[in-house]
Amino acid sequence: MSEPMRMQDVKRHRWWGWGAEGVDFRWETKPDFAAIAKDKVGLDLWNAPRPTTPVLSDLTIPESRMSSTLLNELGAVVESDNVSVDDELRVTHSFGRSLPDLYRVRHEPITRLVDAVVYPGSEDEIAAVLALVLERDLVLIPYGGGSCISGSVTPSPDEERPIVSLNLGRMRRVIDIDEYSGLARVEAGAYGPDLEEQLNLRGWTMGHFPDSFSYSTLGGWAATRSSGMQSDKYGDIEDIVRGLRLVHPRGVMVSKPIPGRDSGPSVHEMVLGSEGRLGVISECTVQVHRLPKVRQVIAYLFPDWASGVEAMHDIARSEVTPAFTRLSDGPETRFSLAMVSEPRGVKATIAARGQDALFAYLRSKGWDTTEGMCLSYVCFEGSKERVAREKAEVKELIGRRGGISLGSGPGDVYDQKKFDTPYLRDFLLNYKVFGDVCETGVTWGDLKNVHARVHERFRQTRSEQGGPGFMFCHLSHSYHGGACLYFTFAIPYTDEDTALAEYQDVKDSIQQEFIDSGGGLSHHHGVGTEHQPWLVDDISEPGAFMVDAVFRATDPGQNLNPGKVLGDRAPS
User: CB-side exposure of 448: number of CA atoms within 13 Å?
Assistant: First the structure.
């Protein structure tokens, strides 16, 4: 990987959905899925017509506003082979993977797309493109993997100036590893799998595995304050990124990868979460760790949500340091069991029979095995001795709260399938069902209350709308003071004229409840445009004023991803 790859070889989503062509959710292999879809959202998969795949030629695609002169100037910077006005590329780069983005690209007339997609191969080329953007009064939107679900890469429909989507996918190298310090310099366009492959070959891992891992990049993680599944051990991205380089209108801003920064307000922190408003992240220096000798994911069951939450709190307060702890509430546990594939082979069949016998026994003890019991996963890493010691301690802590161990079998399946969930959203959308997620960070003291209030707010909203709906939640990303609550909901729609407004009412009610009950607007999905209405409530008016002042000072011409994070605020 010494040379940047060609533009054509950079991985990208299919234009109408998540991930790769030919990879789809298959409900037929999951014997319990159709029943829960019918029960919760009225989707009759047995009798529903098979949906057709969207076809690009069915779209009316606006012509590029990029003149031949500008295209030649961009081509002179990155070579003409790395500049494209191809229709499919422009569509793909103009929509993130939020549900509104995907619904609009399928069902609504396209009024605005980015006008050219540019693939730089170096920091110098990023700087030259940025200089051209400012000189010619263009708009630049940095693009990592395009997996954002908050509108961060979607251009404003009102933007009249030519828009450049700057795809950093050619810049994917691990430049260097300082093994003594445990730090690696990495180009910002590295996708998760490429990054880990390069590190793993030398015995290292960054340990950052968000749901979007397969289709997101290091620079995108930093620009949106990402969290990975294993943040309990490795930290969130702001803990992992120790230094960075940002191509800024005034030059390259550098933050050193040193411990402790008593240098006034942290410009390093300003860049994290800035979503392209301050410039383009070109490189990050990240913490890396030796690959663990042993890794095991153990599953547990609890009789109810409250018992499971107390156990997760106990683990967070203990001396155990799992890579992650995760607890599904009752509805999510039922959904997870419905996602299990039909057993094949003798071993799988025996395991399924054993599960049935276990559930029958638990029911005899008073457990609600339909939507009351809660499934948990805990990941242990380290030496054989450490893993054995921590498993024993966690088993004792969980036992005190009435939980039982299911062993490593379910955990192995979870580990293998953990990046496949986004494909389910595309599948549901094919059948006129919106499936989406919202997450928030809360203190341990507020966690149970927030969980209950969000569920109630969802039920109330759907009751007012007069339609069915299904919501479930899991606890993840545990900290000393609290954890993340990650909600998933599904609602069917019938009328395409009102579908998105109905969805937005549901999503807005959930977001508002986060704020009303003491949570944050988002734990790790960024702000973009979709979460802007709650930003001032989250960080206060003076806080928003300070952020806005930084954006305006850096980008007075509104050339850098305008409208994201704070929108176009009037000076106050």
Answer: 10
- Specify whether the CB–CB gap between 184 and 288 falls below 8 A: yes
pLDDT digits (tens, 9 = 90+) for 12-32: 999 999 998 888 999 999 999
Specify the 3-state DSSP secondary structure of 192.
helix
86 CB contacts (<8 Å, ≥6 apart)? 117
In the structure encoding, which two tokens stand for residue 195, read together?
Answer: 């990054």
Q: Beta-carbon neighbour count of residue 39 at 10 Å?
A: 13
> Whose structure tokens read 């070109």?
282
pLDDT tens digits, one per residue of 423-476: 999 999 999 999 999 999 999 999 999 999 999 999 999 999 999 999 999 999
> Which residue, among 269, 170, 261, has the nearest Cα to 223 in the 3D structure?
269
Q: Can you give the pTM of this predicted structure?
A: 0.95
Residues contacting 97, CB < 8 A, separation 6+: 13, 17, 18, 146, 147, 148, 149, 212, 422
Pairwise CA distance, residues 311 & 263, whole Å: 40
| pLDDT above 60 for 2 | no
Integer Cα distance of 106 and 55 in angstroms: 9
Query: Whole-angstrom Cα distance, residue 67 to residue 532?
Result: 33
Determine the Cα–Cα distance for residues 282 and 101; give it in Å rounded to an integer.
26
Angle 166-176-167 from CA coordinates, rounded to 5°: 10
**Using CA atoms, how far apart are residues 564 and 224, in angstroms rounded to an integer?**
11
List, for residues 276-320, the tens digit of each pLDDT value.
999 999 999 999 999 999 999 999 999 999 999 999 999 999 999
The set of catalytic residues is: 486
> CB–CB of 281/188 below 8 Å?
yes
Taking residue 514's Cβ as centre, other Cβ atoms within 10 Å add up to: 28
Measured distance CA(14)–CA(22) in Å, rounded: 10
User: 272: which DSSP letter?
Assistant: T
Confidence label for 135 from pLDDT (cuts 50, 70 and 90): very high
- Kind and range of the H or E element at 89? helix 87-94
3-class SS at 384? helix
Beta strand spans in 335-432 (E): 374-382, 404-407
Angle at 166 between CA 201 and CA 548, to 5 degrees: 110
